[in-house]
Amino acid sequence: MAIFERAEVTAAPVYDIDQFMADPHVIGREILIDLPDEQTGRLPMHNIIPRLSDTPGRLRHPAPALGEHTAEILGSLGLGPADIDGLAREDIIHLGGDRP
């Protein structure tokens, strides 16, 4: 990297995830934020970009769990609860939460 800096070449190292998370620039710019997660307790997520002075934005919800909205979406497409449950029993779809 020193050679690139002396030559004024724009370059950056290729990091693994641990190196990325420990990088002073990543930490200083708050590129990653920790969000609550039911399975792991916390989950590092990429922060909102761009963060503007007057309207910085924020993550309002973590990503949905696998199958969390499946029944709702299929129901809005006209499938009834029995049809949705049947698809889940046949392992065609996954339903999140306490459902099968």
| Total domain count | 2
Structural class: alpha+beta
Query: What's the arrangement of strands in the largest beta sheet?
Result: 1-2
Query: What do the pLDDT scores average to?
Result: 89
Helix fraction bin: 25-40%
Major sheet characteristics? 2 strands, antiparallel
The number of helical elements comes to: 5
Share of residues in strands: 5-15%
End-to-end CA span: 52 Å
Report the principal-axis shape. elongated
Determine Rg (CA atoms, Å). 21 Å
* Total number of beta strands: 2
Show unreliable segments.
Answer: none
* Oligomeric assembly: single chain
Order of helices and strands: HHHEEHH
What are the main properties of this structure?
100 residues, alpha+beta, two-stranded antiparallel sheet, 2 strands
What does this structure look like?
The protein is α+β, with helices and mostly antiparallel strands. The protein is built from 5 helices and 2 strands; from the N terminus they run αααββαα. The protein has helices at 2-6, 17-22, 24-28, 70-76, 81-89; strands at 32-37, 41-46. The chain has a two-stranded antiparallel sheet.
Short summary:
The chain is of the alpha+beta class. 32% of the residues lie in helices and 12% in strands.
Q: What is the strand and helix layout of this fold?
A:
Elements: H1 2-6, H2 17-22, H3 24-28, E1 32-37, E2 41-46, H4 70-76, H5 81-89
Antiparallel strand pairs: 1-2
